[in-house]
Amino acid sequence: MTSKERVIRAFNHRETDRVPAWCGASPEFWEKAKRALVLDDEGLRKRLGDDFRRVNARYRGPDLNLSSGASWKSPFGVERKGVGYGQPLSHPLKDAKTVKEVLDYPWPDPAWMDVSGVRADALEWGGQYAILGGDWSPFWHDLIDLVGHENLYYMMYDAPEVALAIFERVTDYYYHVSSAIFEAAADVIDIFFIGNDLGSQTGPLLGVDLFEKFLLPSLKRLIDLGHRRRLKVMMHCCGGFRPLIPSMIRAGLDGLHALQPRCEGMEPAGLKRDFGGGILLNGAIDSQSVLIEGNPDYVRRETARTCGILSPGGGYVAGASHDYILEETPLENVLAMFDTIREYRRE
After folding, report:
1. Full set of structural domains in the chain with CATH
2. Is the peptide bond before 258 cis (omega within 30 degrees of 0)?
3. To pair with 331 at 20 to 30 A between CA atoms, which of 151, 187, 263, 296?
4. What letter does residue 263 receive in the DSSP assignment?
5. Can you tell me the distance from the alpha carbon of 25 to that of 87, in angstroms, rounded to the nearest whole number?
């Protein structure tokens, strides 16, 4: 069974020859692992047994011209500073009071993303792996950057039409970028993979009512876009967001990643019992207390335990509970996790 066949069977809630595996890692961990194992990128993916590969469009727009001290800039003109992508230095739409102010904002052109190489990139893997494609589309995070997190909550109540207009314009950009990607390469892509973190350690960042009014329309636009191209649609979502999952399933979402079992409501057994028949579950092997703080024997036990809970009947992809395996994670623990996933068989 190829990796692609294995993953598609899992999405269709059918059992496979082995549990599919997913690897997401920080650049720092990835480089550390390549050095230690003397492998290149593809060699490391194969050593870990990763069943997925990813293709991306490339930015070809105007020079981003970072201000002094800024380390990154979003397509929507928000500069950030700090570790990784950092934190926003300003919120350019925080004082928007009218829809006209939203429409007058200098929104990015989707044509800035060059999709010409996406199909060739996907074909390099010869149809053997499950290909992730489409734009990451973090519309919730972009609203937070553009408006400010607390300001956004106030705006949802005090000026809902303005908040909805910003959601629509941000989603327009991602919708059209992914449309261009799929026009060029949908026949060699399997999964439209997007990301929006909607949970905290103790629960969702907003209630079901606000989620369904403000975020679900954007999410459903992207889900429908993927489905029209016969793609599965999977969303990365950190934290505890269990109350929002029924709405996601009703909207047609096919998969959820990365499932943090230490967050409120995200216990694997409960997720499998209540949602496992309606959506693929991806992740759930604890990155913090198991992968970082544990030892290889503990990692093997916990990995096998998690697979035993989530894999029966299909609908599960095994991997870490965070898609950014950190540099401080011991390599021997990560190898123990992936070796156990590959070797796991139901008794």
Report:
1. 3-343 (3.20.20.210)
2. yes
3. 263
4. S
5. 21
Tokens of 70: 């800024």
Residue 91, amino acid: H
- Four-residue CA torsion sign, 308, 200, 264, 256: negative
Q: pLDDT for 312-344, tens place per residue?
A: 999 999 999 998 999 999 999 999 999 999 999
Neighbours of 187 (CB within 10 A): 10
- Structure tokens, 313: 């009947």
Query: Measuring CA to CA, which residue among 84, 42, 89, 129 is closest to residue 323?
Result: 84
| pLDDT tens digits along 135-165 | 999 999 999 999 999 999 999 999 999 999 9
Neighbours of 74 (CB within 10 A): 18
Written as one string, the DSSP assignment of 12-28 is TT---SS--B---B-HH
**C-alpha to C-alpha distance for 224 and 233, rounded to whole angstroms:** 9
Cα-based angle 85, 86, 87 (whole degrees, multiple of 5): 125
Q: How many residues does the chain have?
A: 347
pLDDT in tens, 243-262: 999 999 999 999 999 999 99
CA–CA distance, 320 with 303 (Å, rounded to integer) = 9
Beta bridge partners of 53: 131
Burial of 72 (0-12, 13-18, 19+ CB in 10 A): middle
Residue with tokens 């997007």: 194
Question: HSE on the CB side for 320, CA within 13 Å?
Answer: 24
Give, rounded to a whole angstrom, the gap between the first and last alpha carbons of the chain. Answer: 20
Report the SS3 class of residue 138: coil
Strands (E), the chain: 52-54, 58-59, 72-73, 79-81, 87-88, 113-114, 130-133, 191-195, 199-200, 203-204, 232-237, 255-258, 280-285, 316-320
DSSP string, 198-241: -EETTEESS-HHHIIIIIHHHHHHHHHHHHHTT-EEEEEE-SB-
Q: What share of the chain is helix, strand, coil (3-state, %, to 5)?
A: 45, 15, 40
